[in-house]
């Protein structure tokens, strides 16, 4: 038992010595942000809300914000990639795209327009339709979360450049 404990401590010490550390949440230098241009109940806007640090408050009016995230385009494309000779779908391609820009409270653009896109292929089977529906929802959730993390990192970088 003592030997095992010693090995664990040795391993932890080696990891700490090499500079390894878990990824920390992205620090965003803004306390109030407005999300505009999103459809009501947008899944992408919800993903952004989840990824923003807890201390960042999302406000409704741009005038109350320090910065706005303006969605120029927030779309989901679901296309058939493969089908059988009988016309049964075998594979879908899911594409989530967010085109956005940051703006100050007055609406003046801060930097250019950015486009982020995630794409995944999803096999499909009529016999497992419910399971595939759950798999699709999980894929879409992860794709949107990844885009939201990228947006938050860009928001943090925007704060570093002096707004």
UniProtKB/TrEMBL annotation:
GO CC terms in record: cell outer membrane; transporter complex
Subcellular location: Cell outer membrane
Ion transport among keywords: no
Keywords: Cell outer membrane, Lipoprotein, Membrane, Palmitate, Signal
Gene Ontology annotations of biological process type: Gram-negative-bacterium-type cell outer membrane assembly; lipopolysaccharide transport
Its membrane topology: Lipid-anchor
Superkingdom field: Bacteria
Annotated GO MF terms: lipopolysaccharide binding
Subunit (UniProt): Component of the lipopolysaccharide transport and assembly complex. Interacts with LptD.
Task of the protein: Together with LptD, is involved in the assembly of lipopolysaccharide (LPS) at the surface of the outer membrane. Required for the proper assembly of LptD. Binds LPS and may serve as the LPS recognition site at the outer membrane.
Family assignment from sequence similarity: Belongs to the LptE lipoprotein family.
Protein name per UniProt: LPS-assembly lipoprotein LptE
Origin species: Ideonella aquatica
Taxonomic classification: Bacteria, Pseudomonadati, Pseudomonadota, Betaproteobacteria, Burkholderiales
GN (gene name): lptE
């Amino acid at each position: 038992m003592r030997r095992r404990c010693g090995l664990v401590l040795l391993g932890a010490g080696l990891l700490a010595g090499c500079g390894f550390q878990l990824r920390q949440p992205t620090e965003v230098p803004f306390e109030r942000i407005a999300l505009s241009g999103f459809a009501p109940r947008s899944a992408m806007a919800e993903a952004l809300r989840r990824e923003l640090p807890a201390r960042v408050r999302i406000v409704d009016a741009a005038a109350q914000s320090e910065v706005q995230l303006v969605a120029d385009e927030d779309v989901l494309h679901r296309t058939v990639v493969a089908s059988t000779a009988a016309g049964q779908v075998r594979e879908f391609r899911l594409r989530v795209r967010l085109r956005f820009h940051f703006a100050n409270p007055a609406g003046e653009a801060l930097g250019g327009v950015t486009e982020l896109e995630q794409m995944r292929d999803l096999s499909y089977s009529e016999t497992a339709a419910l399971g595939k529906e759950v798999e699709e929802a999980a894929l879409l959730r992860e794709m949107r979360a990844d885009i939201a993390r990228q947006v938050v990192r860009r928001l943090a970088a925007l704060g570093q450049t002096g707004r």
